[in-house]
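Model it.
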Amino acid sequence: MLGALCACARSAPDLPPDLQAKSAGEAAEILKITDKDLALDCTQIQEEMQNLKKEHDIHETTIRTLRGQNQAATYLGLFFLPAYLATDNNSVEKEKLDAIQKRFDQLYYLKKVKKCTASN
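Modeled.
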């Protein structure tokens, strides 16, 4: 049963660090903001966020598509080991989703620092 959960579940990403009591420099260091990031304007930040959202959706769809197959193979694997070995835990997609979430955290911080509005 645990295998069924592992085959389709993705742990929640880490919460972004609490930066309220940090200086701008400390926050940028914690979030690993680069000079290249700081050079982005609000429009570029928004465009990158839109592209990340598209990439995020692709990885989520891949995981969701294989979820039923993985669950069925895991249940069969309780009785027939080769079926369990056929599951794909989508570790690559899950790692990419985690990286996308970290980048979103950086971009949200940049939007705040640069005082970007909803329109840009």
